[in-house]
Fold this protein.
Amino acid sequence: MGTVKNFEDLEIWKSARGICNDIFKIRQNSDLKSDYKLYDQMNGSSGSVMDNIAEGFERNGNREFIQFLAIAKASCGETRSQLHRALDRNYLSKEEFDLLYTKLILLSKQISSFINYLQKSVLKGTKFKG
């Protein structure tokens, strides 16, 4: 993995940021912009993924980072559930749904893998080298 100096260097954070942008684009290009409650929930849960990765990284050690990554993973699932509602309400096409759903599944798996890596890491200090 190399030395990671900033949360912005983490691939999982970059992926989460991309998903947030994808959801914003769906809002801009559909009637999701009129469904304030659902968009607010989707924006919040997708933002929670990237924000919890960032906050966990800025904490003092692996144990807290793992806890925040678990929250980020749960928010990934929440976003997937909301994505189903957006599809059911015809705010996005099946193709758009499938693409974003696949990104969310992959991100969830990547977060799980990173949690496993941190759990096995002998480095427990304030920054993470691997």
Remarks:
- The radius of gyration is 16 Å.
- Residues 62-88 form the longest helix (27 residues).
- The chain has one domain: 7-120.
- Helices lie at 11-28, 36-57, 62-88, 94-120.
